[in-house]
């Protein structure tokens, strides 16, 4: 008896890699902008100081700080995996045998 026998059948294929990354980027961007908006409405200053003076965090800064890592990171991981990524997630399901 395998562990997978008790699981319900999958009804869909799920998301492609670009849909998952794109959806994640949009969700994170909207979430971060929502946090910024709620903070601004609540009266938060969003100012920080460094050696060159004071800087205010705005929507562009939030997007620049949160979106590129989510876009570039998975691509770097895919490239660094080499040709293995083409065969690893090919849809073959493995069952665990007792």
Mean pLDDT value: 80
SSE arrangement, N to C: HEEHH
**Bulk shape:** elongated
Main beta sheet, described? Answer: 2 strands, antiparallel
SS-derived structural category: mainly alpha
Number of strands: 2
User: Radius of gyration in whole Å, from Cα?
Assistant: 21 Å
Q: Would you identify the regions where 5 or more consecutive residues have pLDDT less than 50?
A: none
Major sheet strand order: 1-2
Percent range of helical residues: 55-70%
In percent terms, what proportion of residues is strand? 5-15%
The number of helical runs is 3
First-last Cα distance: 7 Å
Overview in brief:
By secondary structure, the protein is mainly α. The chain is 55% helix and 8% strand. The protein has a domain of 66 residues.
List the helices and strands and how they pair.
Blueprint: H1 17-42, E1 47-50, E2 53-56, H2 59-81, H3 84-88
Antiparallel strand pairs: 1-2
Helix pairs in contact: 1-2
């Amino acid at each position: 008896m395998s562990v997978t026998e008790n699981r319900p059948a999958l009804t869909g294929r799920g998301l492609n890699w670009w849909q998952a990354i794109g959806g994640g980027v949009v969700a994170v961007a909207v979430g971060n902008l929502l946090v910024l908006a709620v903070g601004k409405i609540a009266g938060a200053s969003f100012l920080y100081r460094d050696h060159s003076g004071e800087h205010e965090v705005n929507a562009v800064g939030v997007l620049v700080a949160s979106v590129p890592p989510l876009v570039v990171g998975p691509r770097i991981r895919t490239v660094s995996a080499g040709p293995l990524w083409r065969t690893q997630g090919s849809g073959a399901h493995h069952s665990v045998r007792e």
